Amino acid sequence: MKNLHLLTLIFFALFFSCGKDKNRPESLGGKWELRHILGVQIKDAPSDFEKGNGNVIEFSANEYQRIENGTLVSKGTYAIVEESAEIDGTQYEHKIVFDDSDQKVFIKISGNQLLICLGPIASDGTTITYEKI
Prior knowledge:
Helices cover 12% and strands 47% of the residues. It has 133 residues and is mostly beta strands. The chain has an eight-stranded antiparallel β-barrel.
């Protein structure tokens, strides 16, 4: 019986100690700077942004703050929820819920890029790409 308990403990230790996938929302923490906006509907609005542009979103364990041109424009709390969706050919597995919005926002982390999707482009949606800094 002791061996069974020991094997169970070893199994759980191995299962829960496996390294976290860097593309999962757990790696959301830190600062992200705006690089690209897809779906901009405003004439002559830029869609690509250079490094050092001052448009940053920063995430901690459950809080965020968004800075534009060095000025804090919003802050609050957020939660990550598992929900799958394919939007504009990209598969998303997680939704982010901001405390100050009821909009459905999907996120995907791929390497050092964060995609924040606010719906399909054909329905006036927008996908915003950030790069980890």
